[in-house]
Design a protein that fits this description.
The complex is a heterodimer of chains A (323) and B (527). Chain A is mostly helical and 323 residues long. Chain A has a domain of 162 residues. Chain A contains eight helices and one strand. In chain A, helix 2 packs antiparallel against helix 3, helix 3 crosses helix 5 and helix 5 packs across helix 8. The two termini of chain A are 29 Å apart. By secondary structure, chain B is of the alpha+beta class. In chain B, 36% of the residues are buried. Classes of the chains: A mainly alpha (323), B alpha+beta (527). Chains A and B meet through strand 1, helix 6 and helix 7 of A and helix 2, strand 8, strand 11, strand 21 and helix 8 of B.
């Protein structure tokens, strides 16, 4: 394929992914709304209750919240569309890399489409292991926003890497960071959903004395919180690795492994906040909604690091490629 | 850190020792650790918003000049050097003290737990959720022996009991996943090691910046650096005695597309020796490919142009003949610099603007439109008088103090052109240009330790997050008779209630139950 054809194909694939994702979003939304109408009674499943000391008592976790038939079909359609979008986006990112003749991580457009891809990848990976269709709507929306921003504001033609980025550490450091972007987004989405459901349940209890039927398509608040915890537990070591890999690279490129460059500072802040999250999860009185807020703040810190530092601060990491 | 289940004392008890104990308990509680973590995150923010002394001292000066009263206040509070400020240090030192206060008792506890056998089975397994009860046509001794064998081979720590009972063992207690807590402790200790490594680097490390023109060189002594900073315990007289010459500097820029003007590559070809007696060696230094000389590393951090001038005085005598380092002011290498000629009579000074690809804009004046030397030109203003070099005040080589000088005129020169001054006091010829490279030479004796500690930290972290601490009990309820009633139950021991952990334990129990049921199928000789 010629360069021009590759460029066109890459862009076309990404636009196509956005279209299928939009349909996926609609389908997820339909399934979500269907669940709300048919308020299923007794959907709440007690998974575990705290025993004595720091010991959890075992009960067998049930698979998923009750799922009224109405929303099921559209949720399945949405999942298929998400898979299709993932494949299209993967093709777009890969062709972008071939077009540029390098890994597609040279500017913010490329970081953004890769982050969108990683978010879908983490979500779909999770969907293979457990039923996470309830999360779909809240994953597809940020992914669509990211892609929309990428193709409108951040778009740049493929070009060579600036010399500072020519290193195999680019592959190691950025791939870890990009996967973390996906995982943090999913963790924050689940945390926000847990907070929303918890709040609505409290209101429903105050009004009608029962929380039955509140966001019944979504797992219980407990399960949302433990889901968030699981995703953070996966991404925190990876984020630590991304930071350490960045430090090794910085030592090789700039002569110091840590220099409190704004990007490094915000990576550190993100790290500290997620460390606080993990500590909160084993502190009495912090485990629930407070921990969820911390996870959301951690994700915001990650976003500030990505957008804020690239656009508004003079950093050694200013590779936005947007003028 | 400690599991934070102890209730906070509402008021400190009176009395010195009591207060100290109370304060220590507060400091090492998980809640305090959490608050300190938040404080650490918040305290870091100004360091990313305000310019920092360590990264950009010039910006700091500009900021303070822009709003002097606020600027000076912020400066006195350490906001332009956040990561060296006492209040920032207070936060992380408290956090690390709190960490030590947690890790030490927990390490002791963990050590004891690893030496002790798993606790005996609870009286009533039914009270645990998820208990599996099954009847097997096997002798109870075989059930116990089979369970022990299975659990041992799957690396569970196993104990059977009750001991000394004539009827033989009737229960098995097993525990697994001690590495979770080990990893947790390793992670926290590794963080301490990272802090120590940073401290070693800060005390014994040094770093310096130097600009070298093509054909020029430098030796590793403090006086030869343009900027040098070393830790408190560095003996600046005994730096590694290496020396280096810049043979040539090559650079190429993107010519097409949106990234026009971005560098494609730059590399510095150098000749160096480890010490004055050592043989010469050659090397190429690139971004991401520093040169390592005796544990110090030489990094290529910048480059620019050094226009070459020949200046003659009124009699035609050559008073200056050299390339002069001009500092780039923008991405297209519009560069400024000065030439000082104290040897002429009267003294001469030139202020210059070098444009690698000159373009004359009616409003902006001269500026460069491309970083490569496609159309080089210099704009010069010539001055005569007293350069002020004899006052004893140190002067910047990049700034001309024209207070006691008078301007001769302004000139624009292309390579090879000569500008004769109207007053007949002499001439200047722009013969061409060399390039220069700026190097950062850094020595950090703590970095290897920091790397090892980081690897330890990640390993410990993964163990502490992915290993699951859990217990399993097998109990024989009715040892007499043909059908043996066996109960299997388990507990997870992590403080976060996680489906996955519960699921994994369920799997463990299922596997064990399958194993026990299988013994049924293979009749033993003595039954």
């Amino acid at each position: 394929m010629t360069t021009a054809a590759l460029a066109q194909a890459s862009n076309a694939a990404i636009y196509a992914a956005m279209i299928t994702l939009t349909f996926a979003m609609v389908a997820f939304a339909v399934s979500f709304a269907a669940g709300r109408r048919r308020a299923a009674a007794g959907a709440a499943v007690v998974v575990a209750r705290p025993g004595e000391g720091s010991v959890a008592v075992l009960t067998r976790p049930s698979d998923s919240p009750e799922r009224p038939e109405a929303g099921k079909r559209s949720a399945n359609i949405a999942m298929s569309l998400t898979w299709l979008s993932f494949i299209l986006l993967l093709a777009g990112v890969v062709m972008r890399g071939i077009w540029a003749g390098r890994v597609p991580w040279g500017n913010m457009y490329e970081f953004s489409i890769s982050a969108a891809l990683a978010t879908l990848a983490v979500f779909l990976f999770l969907s293979l292991r457990s039923d996470v269709r309830w999360l779909g709507l809240f994953i597809v929306i940020p992914v669509l926003l990211t892609l929309g921003m990428a193709v409108t504001v951040l778009y740049t033609e493929a070009a060579q890497l600036v010399p500072a980025l020519k290193s195999y550490w680019l592959v190691i450091h950025v791939s870890a960071a990009v996967i973390c972007s996906g995982a943090f987004t999913i963790a924050a989405a689940a945390a926000a959903l847990g907070l929303l459901k918890g709040g609505l349940e409290r209101r429903a209890v105050a009004r009608t004395g029962s929380s039955d039927g509140v966001l019944s398509r979504v797992p219980s608040v407990d399960r949302l919180e433990s889901f968030t915890n699981r995703v953070v537990a996966f991404s925190f070591p990876l984020w630590t690795f991304a930071v350490v890999a960045g430090a090794i690279w910085a030592e090789n490129a700039w002569g110091r492994y840590w220099g409190w460059d704004p990007k490094e500072t915000w990576a550190f802040i993100t790290w500290v906040i997620f460390a606080a999250y993990l500590h909160a999860r084993s502190t009495a009185g912090w485990r629930g909604s407070k921990a969820s807020w911390i996870a959301i703040v951690g994700w915001l810190a990650f976003l500030i690091n990505y957008f804020g530092v690239n656009f508004f601060v003079n950093s050694l990491h200013s590779y936005a490629g947007v003028s | 850190m400690s599991a934070g289940r102890e209730p906070m004392a509402p008021l400190p008890p009176l009395g010195g020792l009591g207060f100290v104990r109370w304060a220590w308990r507060q400091l090492t509680s998980m809640k305090t650790a959490l608050i300190l973590l938040f404080l650490l995150a918040i305290a870091s923010i100004p360091g990313s918003i305000l310019p920092q002394q360590g990264n950009d001292p010039l910006k700091v000066k500009e900021w303070i000049a822009g709003s002097p009263s606020v600027g000076r206040l912020l400066q006195s509070l350490g906001f332009f050097d956040v990561f060296a400020a006492p209040w920032f240090a207070a936060v992380y030192l408290l956090l690390f003290i709190s960490l030590i206060g947690c890790v030490v008792p927990r390490a002791r506890q963990h050590w004891r737990a690893m030496l002790a056998p798993p606790p005996a089975a609870p009286k009533n397994l039914d009270r645990l959720g998820g208990t599996v009860t099954l009847d097997v046509a096997v002798d109870s001794a075989d059930v116990i022996a089979g369970a022990v064998e299975y659990l041992r081979s799957h690396r569970w720590r196993v104990v059977e009991g009750p001991s000394g009972d004539a009827l033989g063992p009737r229960w098995v207690s097993a525990e697994k996943g001690y590495l979770r807590e080990t990893g947790n402790l390793v992670f926290h200790v590794a963080l301490l090691l990272i802090l120590a490594s940073v401290a070693v680097g800060g005390l014994f490390g040094w770093k310096g910046n130097v600009i070298v023109k093509e054909g020029g060189g430098f030796a590793n002594t403090v006086t030869q650096y343009d900027a040098w900073g070393g830790g408190r315990l560095v003996d600046s007289d005994s730096l590694t005695p290496f020396s280096l010459t810049l043979d040539s500097f090559d650079v190429d820029f993107e010519r097409e597309g949106s990234q026009r003007g971005a560098p494609k590559y730059f590399e510095a070809k150098v000749t160096y020796r480890d010490d004055p007696a050592a043989p010469q060696q050659q090397s190429v230094i690139e971004v991401n490919a520093p040169l390592e000389v005796d544990r110090a590393k030489v990094f290529l951090v910048g480059h620019g142009y050094a226009p070459h001038f020949v200046v003659k005085d009124a009699t035609g005598r050559v008073v200056f003949n050299d390339a002069v380092v001009f500092l780039p002011q923008d991405g297209n290498f519009t560069s400024t610099g000065v030439v000082k000629i104290p040897d002429s009579e009267p003294q001469l000074g030139l202020r210059g603007l070098f444009l690698p690809t000159a373009s004359i804009d009616k409003i902006k004046g001269g500026q460069s439109v491309f970083p490569g030397p496609d159309n080089p030109a210099v704009f010069l203003s010539a001055w005569t008088g007293d350069l002020g070099l004899d006052t004893g005040m140190p002067q910047s080589v990049y700034r001309l103090d024209s207070e006691s000088m008078t301007q001769i005129g302004l000139g624009t020169l292309r390579p090879g052109q000569i500008w004769d001054w109207q007053d007949g006091s002499g001439s200047v010829m722009f013969t061409g240009f060399d390039r220069w490279a700026s190097f950062q030479i850094a020595y950090d004796p703590g970095k290897e330790a920091a790397l090892i500690a980081s690897i330890l930290a990640i390993t410990g972290l993964m163990l502490s997050l992915f290993v699951r601490r859990r217990r399993i009990w097998v109990k024989v309820l009715a040892p007499a008779g043909a059908a043996t009633v066996v109960q299997v139950a388990g507990l997870t021991r992590s403080s976060s209630l996680d489906d996955i952990e519960l699921g994994a334990l369920t799997d463990d129990i299922d596997a064990l139950v399958r194993e026990i049921s299988r013994t049924e199928a293979t009749p033993k000789e003595h039954t």
